[in-house]
Amino acid sequence: MRLRVLMEPRHGARYEEILALALATEQAGFDAFFRSDHLLGVDPADPTFRPTDCWTTLAGLARETSRVRLGALVGAATFRVPGLLATIVASVDEMSGGRVELGLGTGWFAREHAAFGIPFPPTGERFDRLEEQLAVITGLWRTPTGDDAGFSFDGAHYRLEANRTPPRPLQDPHPPIIIGGAGPRRTPAIAARYADEFNGALTFGDRTGVQLAERFAGFARACEAVGRDPGEARRSAVLPVACGSTPAEAQRRAEVMGSELMRSTAAIGSPTEVTDLVGALAEAGADTVYLHIYDIHDLDHIALIGAEVLPHVTSTPERTGAR
């Protein structure tokens, strides 16, 4: 079992605040530090929200951390064209010494797109664009150096002509790709073709992971439909967390989430209770759990989970085929 930290601050953050949380994550022993890819917060009318670009900050973290893996969970395919995104991720991968992972989804926050002037196509088109983006990104990364023909792509939404200088990530064959979402059909089908990790979205209130297990089963069926061994890919879930040494401390941290709906899925309680809920996700099939952190200034929270939860869950045997 891999335990990771996912940062999504309610009010945004300055780079120095993001760096402090990433360094605390690394010091506490977690496997990875991920951040969300959003330009607005949970409350789009919140005037205190400070937007930052996901990959710009990850590039900075790549040079200022030494061990944790870094990535976005998940990036919006609407934000960046695929050739540019392939180059950005490859650059950050080199800067990090090969510690980057690419999480990518369709994008969903319509108000966010409107606020920043980013086109937001209908759902079907966003899925089409995501699929083409993944074809372009992996095609560029897999094109051999010195290939005279280069890489070309002629899709409905993107067209590349004879790119003979494709971006070169440090990891071979390329950084791991994470695809996630709750869609019952196209999400698992796209993930079966491209994902090194499938992230099954938790349903609000599904603390036991019953519906998560169903999404993992859907992904397995999608893999089998294209002749892929489902065991080749990791399976992950996001778990909002508010852990405390006392009930009052746990409740104080839970209040930062700001939403009763979010708290209905969260792990709120003592280290033992949080460990048990992580274990329930493991029973549902997850081999990787991203702990969703909202108060990025509460570094004691990270230290507590690292000391009292992490040692118990990382000893969980991995599923056969996880890598």
Automatic annotation (TrEMBL):
InterPro entries: F420_OxRdatse_Rv1855c_pred, Luciferase-like_dom, Luciferase-like_sf, SsuD_RutA_monooxygenase. It comes from the Bacteria. This is LLM class F420-dependent oxidoreductase. Pfam families: Bac_luciferase (PF00296). Transmembrane segments: none annotated. Keywords: Flavoprotein, FMN, Monooxygenase, Oxidoreductase. Residues 9-254 form the Luciferase-like domain.
